[in-house]
Design a protein that fits this description.
With 250 residues, this protein is an all-alpha fold. Helix 4 (57-79) runs parallel beside helix 6 (118-149) and helix 7 packs across helix 8. It has nine helices and no strands.
Length: 250
């Protein structure tokens, strides 16, 4: 196994040689990125191994909470919003959406003998949180940027007698559009490039092709549903951080 891994790492000589010839300044960046990727992958494999080996529900739930918090931090860094103010809304949106949709998939839809088992719980929840993080970055960033850019529209709607919820609905609509427009455009691409990789893993686990198709379809639909729930919960909880008690944008 170690020898095979070393032989696979030799393939890095191809991009390293190209960079050495054309742009040596990127060699260090690529080296750091590769080392970071290897370390992250090793840590992830050890965590998943421990979760599956001990197979305790409380341990899987603790892992899910930590995953939601870490994903929330990464999302806020990407959006460049204050982590201390928005970590709770973002993490709660990711956690609740994954639990609601994941529980429905595990105990109603997917052919899992034990929905509480880590063998199904961990990959399904990880997929939902990962996909929700990507869509939430787009949605929350669009919502916040639209409020900053068109604050006068919000003030105009409030000044004409509309309540706070009605005044923010146009900005929520923009956030939803930003979430679903790229998703709808990428669905066909996912079926050709990204999802077959996950299908290969399901096949390696011994699942029949028709069952793998059904599982993949359910997971994709679950990701779409969870992204809406994550965005709705995050915007609802973040409202107090974005507006003061008088409805004024902070």
């Amino acid at each position: 196994m170690v020898l095979h891994m070393f032989l696979a790492l030799l393939l890095l000589l191809i991009p390293a040689g190209a960079l050495y010839y054309f742009d040596r300044s990127l060699l260090r960046t690529m080296g750091v990125a590769v080392v970071r990727m290897v370390v992250q992958l090793l840590v992830l494999c050890l965590i998943v191994w421990a979760l599956v080996k001990y197979d305790k529900l409380w341990l899987s739930l603790l892992w899910l909470v930590l995953l939601a918090v870490v994903s929330g931090v990464l999302a806020l860094r990407r959006i460049k919003l204050p982590i201390a103010r928005f970590l709770l809304p973002v993490s709660a949106g990711l956690l609740v959406s994954a639990l609601v949709v994941g529980a429905y998939l595990l105990w109603v839809c997917l052919p899992a003998e034990n929905g509480f088992g880590a063998r199904w719980f961990v990959p399904v929840m990880a997929l939902l949180v990962g996909q929700n993080t990507t869509t939430l970055i787009r949605g929350l960033s669009t919502y916040h940027s639209a409020l900053k850019a068109d604050e006068q529209q919000y003030e105009f709607l409030r000044g004409n007698g509309t309540n706070h919820l009605q005044a923010v609905l146009p900005f929520v609509r923009r956030a939803l559009q930003q979430v679903f427009a790229p998703t709808a455009a990428n669905l066909a691409v996912m079926g050709v490039y990204a999802m077959p990789l996950l299908l290969c893993g399901i096949f390696l686990a011994g699942v029949a092709p028709i069952n793998a198709f059904v599982v993949m379809l359910q997971l994709i639909i679950g990701c779409l549903a969870a992204s809406v729930i994550a965005l709705a919960i995050t915007l609802w909880l973040a409202d107090r951080q974005l507006f003061d008690k008088f409805g004024k944008l902070q």
